[in-house]
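Please, structure for the following, as tokens.
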Amino acid sequence: MARRPDVFVRSLSMDEGRKLQRITRTAKDPVKLRRAIVVLMSGQGQAVGDITGLLRVSADYVRDVIHAFNERGFDALDPKWSGGRPRKIGEYLREQICLIARTSPADWGITAFSTWSLAKLRDHLVGRLSMVPISIETVRRILRDGKVSWQTSTTWKTSTDPDFIAKMHRILDLYDHPPTDGRVVCVDEFGPLNLQPRKGKAWRPMSSPRRLRATYNRTGGVMHMLAALDLTTGKMFYRIRARKRHREFLGLLQALRDRWPGEKLYVVCDNFSPHRHPTVTAWAAGNQVELVFLPTYGSWLNWIEAEFAALRYFALNGTDHRTHDEQNAAIAAYIRWRNAHARPKTSFATDSPIRTWTHYPAKVA
């Protein structure tokens, strides 16, 4: 059988050569990259056999690329995806599958279980929609494409505060427009601070997690942290006490008063009973301290809550302190580091839906 004649690309101009070189250096699509290399090598005079040996492709592939480039130019380098074979399961059935997955088995009269597994959902779909048998993997892919994922249930506690919106707007206004006659300080308690091993995450060798004791006795008692977050500087101030009565809270307020004499303090705090103790409110009224109470079940509006989450993550998680002095020293070290890197607190929940609330949403779907 006679040898097929070699095929070469047409003569390339200098600009076309430079463009091909640029494509071979920058193309991210592997198909376009491979086609550009074929054309460039052919333009350099290399025969079809030489190109197939280097790129590990068939001779027919090389010839097809060269012929296509000779006919259509650089447009021939771009892959034309055909989209594959048509889907066996149409859009309507896919929507029905995603809809059923978001329901409870009880909605279909199934009382044996309260949630779907992929296998149970697949069996129900085959019987309900009269579908041909499909694999569990197909069900999973359909749910993923429909943006339906396996999620943990969360809880929502409805606020009974009739003035929720007014109180929330008051706090947001203090965050957005700090008063010129003073400063805003967020105050709350953190704890209880037990002496116990705390789970946490750390970089470790694969399959070699750090081990903490599983049995322990709480013989060291409990401590409580009372803390304040100054929004002007972003710094935190705290004290650790054995109890968190109104006396301890009043002591924290007096310390804040001494820290910023002459300035009015707007203290954002929750409705914990020591915060509303008559002794506390009377002292605040006489010392230029305005207690700004959060709405009921609205602790998430207190800016210091996020700082407590970071404190728990970086200073306590993954530890197993045996004494309160040891644990308190770890907290103190973290607070010193944090205050050294503190920045003024601005832009609280700027993209949150709460910014558009005109009434309290009694139910969240």
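The chain has a mean pLDDT of 90. The CA atoms of residues 189 and 226 lie 5 Å apart.
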